[in-house]
From TrEMBL:
Source organism of the structure: Paenibacillus physcomitrellae
Source organism phylogeny: Bacteria, Bacillati, Bacillota, Bacilli, Bacillales
Source organism, top-level taxon: Bacteria
Pfam families assigned to the protein according to its UniProt record, in alphabetical order: adh_short
Protein name, as recorded: Carbonyl reductase
Keyword NADP: yes
UniProt xrefs under InterPro entries: NAD(P)-bd_dom_sf, SDR_fam
Keywords: NADP, Oxidoreductase
PANTHER family: CARBONYL REDUCTASE 1-RELATED, CHAIN DEHYDROGENASE FAMILY PROTEIN, PUTATIVE (AFU_ORTHOLOGUE AFUA_3G15350)-RELATED
Length: 246
């Protein structure tokens, strides 16, 4: 069994890769930075897990097509890689306090091209390599704006990703395919993107390790989860279209 996890050189992606590896999967560590990707592979191999590096740069569509040619068979694709905003010197990658009016068209374009268009291109090119019962997992977030959570570029790109999840799932079902595509919301997780600490906000913020285990439990579930958006606690989001309307 083989799984490809994008953005697997650190954070949630690395922990999902590790957890899948412990459950018997050969892991393809997808990362844009080759040095960091190979370092992640070394960590997994040191734990007696089967892992190899594959360069995945969501901003380079040609590289995604070339990467797909090197994958002959795949049981699980976890689309974890992404960016929260276009990079700004002196600002955190995910600036939760950034006012909506401060987002530029370039912020939106850069984030959408990476998180949505890049992921779409990777999925399309890997379809021929997916086994008959393969699972495509899109790591996503809530899209409803709240006082605490309304990073425009990030949630807009994830809303598009969620719609893609639903439409691919519809096509799989219509074709009578056993393949599944679904989204997982890992919740608040301490990563270098947000600067939060595990256990923060009254224990609301999870560690990457905990998020990886919870996400993997959902991924390897024997349930048919095609077309679902699932929270880290297993709850299925049933009001997604209501969220789109606000």
């Amino acid at each position: 069994m083989k799984a490809l996890v994008t953005g697997a050189n650190k954070g949630i992606g690395f922990e999902i890769a590790r957890s899948l590896g412990k459950r018997g999967y050969d892991i393809l560590v997808g990362a844009r930075d080759e040095a960091r990707g190979r370092a992640a592979v070394e960590k997994l191999v040191a734990e007696d897990l089967q892992a190899a590096f594959i360069k995945i740069d969501l901003n380079d569509l040609d590289s995604l097509r070339e990467a797909a040619k090197r994958v002959d068979s795949l049981d699980i694709l976890v689309n974890n890689a992404g960016i929260p905003d276009s990079a700004k010197p002196g600002r955190a990658p995910l600036d939760i306090a950034k006012p909506t009016m401060d987002y530029t068209t370039e912020d939106l374009r850069t984030t959408m091209e990476t998180n949505f268009l890049g992921t779409h291109e990777l999925i399309k090119n890997l379809l021929p390599s997916l086994t008959d019962s393969a699972k495509i997992v899109n790591i996503t977030v809530p899209i409803s704006p709240t006082d605490f959570w309304h990073p425009l570029a990030y949630i807009t790109s994830k809303a598009a990703l969620n719609v893609m999840t639903l439409t691919f799932a519809y096509e799989f079902e219509k074709m009578g395919s056993h393949r599944q595509i679904f989204g997982i919301m890992p919740g608040a997780v301490a990563t270098d993107l947000n600067g939060m600490e595990a256990g923060g906000h009254g224990g609301f913020v999870k560690s990457p390790e905990a998020a990886g285990e919870l996400s993997t439990d959902i991924i390897v579930s024997g349930k048919n989860q095609n077309g679902q958006i699932i929270q880290y606690d297993g709850k299925i989001v049933t009001d997604y279209e209501i969220q789109l309307r606000g």
